[in-house]
User: What shape does this take?
Amino acid sequence: MKKLALYLIAIAMMTACNNAEPQPDESAHSEKKWWKEAIIYQIYPRSFKDTNGDGIGDLRGIIEELDYIQSLGVTAVWLNPIYSSPNDDNGYDVSDYRNIMDDFGTMEDFDQMLSGMHERGIKLIMDIVVNHSSDEHEWFKQSRSSRDNPYRDYYHWWPAEKGKPNYRYSLFDERGDAWKYDTLTNAYYLHYFSQKQPDLNWSNPKVRQEVNEIMKYWAEKGVDGFRLDAFQFAAKDTTYPAFPEGFEKNFIDYYAMQDGLNDYLRGMYDEVFSKYDVMSVAEGAGRNLQEAHELVDEDRQELNMAYAFEGVDIAKYEGYELSKLKEIFSKWDSAFAEKGWLSIFLANHDQARLVSRFGSDEPAFREASAKMLNTFILSMRGTPYCYYGDELGMTNIGFTSIEQYKDIAAINGYKKAKAEGKDMDYFLKKLSFESRDNGRTPMQWNGDKNAGFSEADPWLPVNNNHLEINVEAQERDPESILNHFRNLTKLRKEWPVLVYGQYEIVEKEHPQVYAYARKYNDQQLLIVHNFSKEEAKFALPENINLGEILINNYPDLKMEKDIFSLRPYQSVIMVKE
Ligand code: NOJ
Assistant: This one.
């Protein structure tokens, strides 16, 4: 009886509280969550800051810069893998999921870094790499040692006496072949990435349990979320049927979201995600909108947010169309308008630099376009992911010879293209623009030697433009890209409409301008970006009355008779009345 009375009082109090609140918008998005409001800063630890003079960034470097990270106004950090690894793919080949890579420091450093973040109100999202492990992981060493080893089924093996298995494409293999013959047991193992990244066999419940335990280990330490690397590839048909010839051109259609994948995620949800206050996101969002939706539909209890590549992928050496960018972002937004939640990003460690790809790194336009792109990312619906250095407008380094690259994808891609007789001149030009190493050069802290990143020669050269583009210089300039970024994060926190508001594209066909309205309860905004190097005329649509300008990457905004003259890459957020 007493319990029932307490329960009824609690319900009455909850109802009273709810009634006191203004009624939110209808959509499921009005359900507030910290991970929807988060502003994520992605750190590539190898390139952030080196404190022990080996030319490689480390956890103590992150600890030293926690105040800087906090000053950005970001509320969470996604850290690329920091586990023990032989570094065939810079940590995406894990040899021990419960240890810290020697290059990066110790578990004590990790604990200190985590509490330092938490003291500053910053959450930590770990990268969980479990589509594959390193071939130097104990599981693989055991698995490879004999056919009847208890770990044999942790990976995908094909006995060679049955002949060569059906072709599978590998993204990082120099021959593009995902089956590697291993003499020891006269069998092939599967590796969608490099030969040193054998794929784990997710149809084995023991593998699934191991991974849950790993995530619990980190959740118990207090981490706040997980990004599941390449996870959409984890489920495989272990009869390895033949795929049609040329399938590798659309390999995602054959590799992603195979039977079982959603169940594996549901298992993680039951065992881990539902038991801790952690957010979850997987790299890739399936083959179509429906699959993306299913991954993050709250009712299905799998993941929290989708991380889809369609937008980030369009900017190539050959350029990209603004109309395409608008179409993709609008399409994804409308598909998630009622349910589910998106990640918003235009850069990460697998891409070249944001400003070089989507804006312009020419001196006349770099600053304006970097500010515009940051405004775009921080004003769309979805959780924004901001990649380290983009708050400064860091640019592509643009290597010219293959010897300069460190990335296995570039090096083996080059060997493969050469073997196939491709036009290598074109290949190198394209690589120079698109390569992942462009996005991995050391953080530019100041104009000193090695940009203040390290005392020693860095593992990847610093960009020469660190003399001009660096934190120290931008701290001094109130109009810098860095300070503009800080103003944007502040705005996003002050205006819930930027997080939860509905999105509606405005003047969709405009060839230079990407404009949209956001609306949430009584807050309404108009956001206008000129994505071009030329002035753009933009007529204010009828029935729109504008109020205050909340942020502008130029000192003023030219307008005559309801027609804006937007300067190159001008980007403005205005209140709609
Ligand atoms: C995706 C990661 O983002 C990338 O950096 C890595 O090379 C592959 N997965 C393999 O783990």
